[in-house]
Design goal:
6 helices, 3 strands, mainly alpha
Length: 126
Protein backbone atom coordinates (compact mmCIF):
# COMPACT_ATOMS: atom_id res chain seq x y z
CA UNK A 1 0.00 0.00 0.00
CA UNK A 2 1.22 3.48 -0.81
CA UNK A 3 1.43 5.87 2.12
CA UNK A 4 -0.63 9.03 1.81
CA UNK A 5 1.44 11.24 4.04
CA UNK A 6 4.78 12.91 4.37
CA UNK A 7 6.83 12.32 7.48
CA UNK A 8 5.64 14.34 10.45
CA UNK A 9 7.91 15.10 13.36
CA UNK A 10 7.24 13.51 16.74
CA UNK A 11 5.87 15.55 19.65
CA UNK A 12 8.43 17.52 21.59
CA UNK A 13 10.11 15.64 24.40
CA UNK A 14 8.85 16.49 27.83
CA UNK A 15 5.31 17.13 26.63
CA UNK A 16 2.90 14.66 28.13
CA UNK A 17 -0.31 13.51 26.54
CA UNK A 18 -3.43 14.38 28.48
CA UNK A 19 -4.89 11.61 30.60
CA UNK A 20 -8.25 10.54 29.29
CA UNK A 21 -11.14 8.75 30.84
CA UNK A 22 -13.19 6.56 28.50
CA UNK A 23 -15.84 9.30 28.37
CA UNK A 24 -13.44 12.21 27.75
CA UNK A 25 -11.59 10.18 25.10
CA UNK A 26 -14.86 9.39 23.32
CA UNK A 27 -15.92 13.05 23.43
CA UNK A 28 -12.58 14.28 22.08
CA UNK A 29 -12.45 11.66 19.29
CA UNK A 30 -16.03 12.50 18.32
CA UNK A 31 -15.09 16.20 18.14
CA UNK A 32 -12.03 15.36 16.00
CA UNK A 33 -14.13 13.23 13.65
CA UNK A 34 -16.58 16.12 13.41
CA UNK A 35 -13.85 18.16 11.72
CA UNK A 36 -13.89 15.60 8.89
CA UNK A 37 -17.66 15.37 8.47
CA UNK A 38 -18.95 16.23 5.07
CA UNK A 39 -19.07 14.29 1.85
CA UNK A 40 -16.04 15.98 0.33
CA UNK A 41 -13.67 16.91 3.16
CA UNK A 42 -11.69 13.67 3.14
CA UNK A 43 -11.46 13.72 -0.65
CA UNK A 44 -10.11 17.27 -0.52
CA UNK A 45 -7.62 16.37 2.22
CA UNK A 46 -6.33 13.37 0.27
CA UNK A 47 -5.81 15.65 -2.75
CA UNK A 48 -3.64 17.91 -0.56
CA UNK A 49 -1.69 15.21 1.32
CA UNK A 50 1.14 15.17 -1.21
CA UNK A 51 2.28 18.49 0.26
CA UNK A 52 1.82 20.40 -2.97
CA UNK A 53 -0.04 23.66 -3.28
CA UNK A 54 -3.28 23.23 -5.24
CA UNK A 55 -5.18 25.95 -7.03
CA UNK A 56 -8.94 26.03 -6.59
CA UNK A 57 -9.48 25.21 -10.27
CA UNK A 58 -7.11 22.21 -10.05
CA UNK A 59 -8.97 20.83 -7.04
CA UNK A 60 -12.24 21.29 -8.89
CA UNK A 61 -10.90 19.31 -11.87
CA UNK A 62 -9.42 16.53 -9.69
CA UNK A 63 -12.55 15.96 -7.61
CA UNK A 64 -15.14 14.43 -9.86
CA UNK A 65 -18.71 15.47 -9.11
CA UNK A 66 -18.09 18.39 -6.75
CA UNK A 67 -19.65 21.76 -7.52
CA UNK A 68 -17.75 25.05 -7.19
CA UNK A 69 -20.09 26.08 -4.39
CA UNK A 70 -19.56 22.86 -2.43
CA UNK A 71 -15.78 22.92 -2.94
CA UNK A 72 -15.62 26.51 -1.71
CA UNK A 73 -17.83 25.71 1.29
CA UNK A 74 -15.84 22.63 2.31
CA UNK A 75 -12.51 24.45 1.87
CA UNK A 76 -13.78 27.35 4.01
CA UNK A 77 -14.73 24.90 6.77
CA UNK A 78 -11.36 23.14 6.58
CA UNK A 79 -9.65 26.53 6.72
CA UNK A 80 -11.76 27.67 9.70
CA UNK A 81 -10.86 24.43 11.50
CA UNK A 82 -7.14 25.03 10.91
CA UNK A 83 -6.53 22.09 8.55
CA UNK A 84 -6.09 24.05 5.30
CA UNK A 85 -4.33 27.32 4.54
CA UNK A 86 -5.74 29.58 1.82
CA UNK A 87 -3.58 32.07 -0.06
CA UNK A 88 -5.12 34.78 -2.25
CA UNK A 89 -2.87 36.56 -4.75
CA UNK A 90 -3.55 40.15 -5.75
CA UNK A 91 -3.72 39.44 -9.48
CA UNK A 92 -6.23 39.69 -12.27
CA UNK A 93 -7.81 37.27 -12.64
CA UNK A 94 -7.59 36.42 -8.93
CA UNK A 95 -5.58 33.35 -8.04
CA UNK A 96 -6.32 31.34 -4.91
CA UNK A 97 -4.45 28.28 -3.76
CA UNK A 98 -4.64 25.85 -0.89
CA UNK A 99 -2.24 23.73 1.12
CA UNK A 100 -2.43 21.79 4.33
CA UNK A 101 -1.33 23.47 7.51
CA UNK A 102 1.24 21.55 9.57
CA UNK A 103 -1.64 20.42 11.78
CA UNK A 104 -3.55 19.24 8.72
CA UNK A 105 -0.50 17.38 7.45
CA UNK A 106 -0.16 15.70 10.84
CA UNK A 107 -3.55 14.08 10.21
CA UNK A 108 -2.08 11.92 7.43
CA UNK A 109 -0.64 9.16 9.66
CA UNK A 110 -3.97 8.81 11.48
CA UNK A 111 -5.83 8.35 8.21
CA UNK A 112 -3.15 5.88 7.05
CA UNK A 113 -3.73 3.94 10.27
CA UNK A 114 -7.47 3.81 9.52
CA UNK A 115 -6.73 2.48 6.03
CA UNK A 116 -4.45 -0.21 7.48
CA UNK A 117 -7.08 -1.06 10.06
CA UNK A 118 -9.73 -1.61 7.37
CA UNK A 119 -7.30 -3.65 5.26
CA UNK A 120 -6.61 -5.88 8.27
CA UNK A 121 -10.30 -6.63 8.60
CA UNK A 122 -10.60 -7.42 4.90
CA UNK A 123 -7.68 -9.84 5.01
CA UNK A 124 -8.82 -11.52 8.24
CA UNK A 125 -12.42 -11.87 7.01
CA UNK A 126 -11.35 -13.44 3.72
Amino acid sequence: MTRTHLEVSAPEKGKQRPRYTPLSAAIDVEAALGLLEGRWKLVILFQLFDGKVQRFSDLEKRIDGISQKMLAQQLRQLEADGLVERTVYDELPPRVDYRLTPWGQALCPALDAILLWTEARETSAG
